Amino acid sequence: MILTVTGCIVLFLTSLRFAVALVNWFSRPYLPHVGRDRSRLPSISVLIPVRNEEKNIGTLLGTLVLLPYEKAEIIVYDDGSTDSTAEVVSACARVDRRVRCITGDDLPEGWTGKNHACHKLAEEAKNDYLLFLDADVTVGDDLLKRAVSYASRHRLALLSMFPRQKMRSRGEKIVVPFMFRILLSLLPLFLIRRCRWSSFSAANGQMMLFHGATYRRYRFHERVRDRMAEDIEIMRLIKRSRLRGDTLVGRKEIECRMYR
Fold this sequence. Notes:
Layout: H1 2-27, E1 44-50, H2 57-64, E2 72-78, H3 85-95, E3 99-103, H4 113-124, E4 129-133, E5 137-139, H5 143-153, E6 158-162, E7 164-165, H6 170-184, H7 190-194, E8 207-211, H8 212-218, H9 220-223, H10 230-240, E9 245-249, E10 254-256
Parallel strand pairs: 1-2, 1-4, 2-3, 6-9, 7-10
Antiparallel strand pairs: 4-8, 5-10, 6-8
């Protein structure tokens, strides 16, 4: 009897997760394309916290400076790198004045390193939207335009995205799709924007686009300063504050290789 009940519970939970995965598949939670007109796009600050990212930061910056988005600044926070990260950023800054690097200071008590770095970056940023990126992502030439247009149209305080994962080794091709299927079976992503309950929250710290004025008012990273999963906590905070957030799945516009 106990085995039968257990089997029914397992079957129900498995079916439920399969149904959630199907909902996410058919709802197509992707960033829509927009037209060519860029004249009305608000300004954006691209904010990148780094520590020992010499192998990644040059590629990301090299892509960002070529993006067709005029009202942009790029700020890198070097959190005590011991490799050549700072030199790579400085070399890029000499070529493009929109790029600048700030040197990290001591970590205050009660903060995680990334939350403190993001908080300091936000204090430096002056533009209408704040885009936090991890150094190991790669972006397409229309990411900024599409992300800002989507966030503006839906009046979002936060837009987050799960980058498409690059897979090269055999192990990556086995592990990464399995992890991604698990992720997409946990929560129907369309409910993040449409449902006010903070339980329906998901986000990814690799890409988080904030409405600048809203961020400056709520100081999100400061309010979750000691949290390791700050991305999800911020989305929950946004919902509890009666603000709007959304999380989408990336395709070619943002990618990442998780394991190297």
